[in-house]
Amino acid sequence: MLVIVCQATAKDIKHRLGFLLPKPEAPCDQNSTYNKKDKNGAAQRLCYEEIKKWSETLEKLLSNRYGLAAFTEFLQSEYSEENIEFWLACEDYKKVKSPVKLAAKARKIYDEYIATQSPKEVNLESLTMEETKKNILKPTPSCFNEAQSKIYSLMQKDSYPRFLKSKIYLDLISQASSNSPRSHA
Fold first, then answer.
1. Helices 81-93 & 99-109, crossing angle to 10 degrees?
2. pLDDT tens digits along 24-71
3. Angle 167-15-180 (CA atoms, 0-180°, nearest 5)?
């Protein structure tokens, strides 16, 4: 029964991430961007070189929208998606210009991810939690920097290496490699 469930989950994940893979007939351009369109106006799919770049650094993975989608899918499979959600919320928070919106958004992020027993509580030591709680009393664009840095470090040291060994990533690399007209050493 467990094998059937795992196979079903793996197939579901593969199906949901299948849009990331290149079409067999689509040539892979190392310099392609994700905004390019093919002759039919459809977005080009990822190639082996693009997916391989995700293994260089967590920063490269997160800066690629498809890499971010695959990593988020992986974290969801491990029931730890709150880490990437918090990190993304902090990135979005830094873009807020209005002091009124900054205060409201700071409170929302704190209540959702940092407060004890919050719905998506991230794993932070109490000192960082207390510092962040003080910071949001007078919110600035940098008031979550320490907490965000801790969660990034946690993902970098823990989740990211597991992602690179995961079936999700290995399947994407394998399928992209076999669909690419080039050979890869």
1. 170
2. 334 444 333 333 344 444 344 678 999 999 999 999 999 999 999 999
3. 70
Q: Which CATH architecture has domain 48-178?
A: Orthogonal Bundle (1.10)
Closest CA to 114 of 88, 133, 134: 133
- Model pTM score: 0.75
CA distances, 181 to each of 32, 47, 67, 117 (Å): 16, 10, 22, 51
- Record the tokens describing residue 174, joined without a space: 């394998």
DSSP state string for 18-50: GGGSPPTTSPP-TT--TT-B-TTSPBPPP-HHH
The structure tokens listed for 94 are 């830094």
Count of other CB atoms within 10 angstroms of residue 143: 24
Task: List b or e across 89-114, with b for residues whose CB sees 16 or more CB atoms inside 10 angstroms.
Answer: bbeebeebeeeeebeebbeebbebbb
**Terminal CA-to-CA distance of the chain, rounded, Å?**
38
Give the model confidence (pLDDT) of 124-148 as tens digits.
999 999 999 999 999 999 999 999 9
| Residue spans per domain, the chain | 48-178
